């Protein structure tokens, strides 16, 4: 993950911390994945350091982020990037759904083509 943070990443993180819905559209390779990573690191920090959180901002004790990806290949690529950034992550698809059933993690990736699976019950 690069050390510099782009303005659009800071803006996205700010909106997410304000509990705003948002749609992030940027070109391939410009830092969308890094935005997810940075956001989760901020959320985890604020979860552990409540006094640092802006007024009215709170998160669950054990936060998780769900990211829907268009392909299994992208899920797997992002899962590796998240792990390298010190986050726990799992890609859920028809090849891995039964392995996921009892795991907890920071980041969850699912392909947009996935359907409900009884293995998640």
UniProtKB/TrEMBL annotation:
Top-level taxon of origin: Eukaryota
Cited InterPro entries: DEAD/DEAH_box_helicase_dom, P-loop_NTPase
Domain DEAD/DEAH-box helicase, chain residue ranges per copy: 8-87
GO MF terms held by the record: ATP binding; nucleic acid binding
Pfam families per UniProt: DEAD
Protein name: DEAD/DEAH-box helicase domain-containing protein
Species for this entry: Rhizopogon vinicolor AM-OR11-026
Lineage: Eukaryota, Fungi, Dikarya, Basidiomycota, Agaricomycotina
């Amino acid at each position: 993950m690069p050390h510099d943070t782009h303005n659009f990443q800071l803006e996205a993180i700010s909106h997410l911390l304000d509990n705003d819905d948002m749609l992030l559209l940027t070109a391939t390779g410009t830092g969308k994945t890094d935005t997810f990573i940075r956001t989760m690191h901020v959320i985890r920090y604020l979860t552990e350091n409540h006094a640092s959180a802006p007024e009215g901002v709170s998160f669950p004790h054990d936060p998780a982020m769900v990211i829907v990806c268009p392909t299994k290949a992208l899920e797997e690529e992002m899962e590796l990037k998240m792990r390298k950034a010190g986050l726990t992550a799992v890609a859920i698809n028809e090849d891995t759904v039964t392995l996921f059933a009892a795991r907890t993690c920071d980041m969850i990736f699912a392909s947009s083509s996935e359907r409900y699976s009884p293995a998640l019950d």
